[in-house]
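Milestone 3.1: sequence recovery, worked example.
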């Protein structure tokens, strides 16, 4: 089974499902109003999350998604980020991995960029 078939995207606020496999939180900050028990997070690799500066820039008035994507992909080329990507890829090779985030639009966020990189 390839990583493309085993990497899912979901909001962290959705009820965990058996099909989630390994649940990976890919937000730098813990989601508001969610207990750790309810989230059932298996891994929280903060090295895979956008830097605070990039996150603030993107959510400010000047950030476009295309430029955010380029900047985030550049961040993912760092040594610590490559190691964290390898760790998640290894998990995906063994079974399903679900990338979790509090963002409302998963497809226009760092989560979709990260999923593409993992696949």
């Amino acid at each position: 089974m390839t990583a493309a078939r085993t990497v899912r995207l979901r909001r962290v606020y959705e009820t965990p499902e058996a099909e989630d496999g390994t649940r990976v939180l890919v937000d730098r900050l813990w989601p508001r109003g969610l207990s750790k028990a309810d989230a059932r997070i298996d891994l929280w690799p903060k090295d895979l999350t956008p830097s605070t500066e990039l996150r603030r820039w993107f959510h400010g008035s000047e950030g476009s998604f295309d430029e955010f994507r380029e900047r985030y992909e550049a961040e993912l080329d760092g040594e610590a980020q490559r190691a964290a990507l390898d760790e998640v890829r290894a998990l995906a090779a063994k079974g399903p991995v679900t990338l979790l985030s509090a963002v409302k639009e998963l497809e226009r966020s760092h989560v979709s960029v990260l999923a593409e990189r993992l696949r």
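Residues 3-118 form one domain. The two ends are 12 Å apart (CA to CA).
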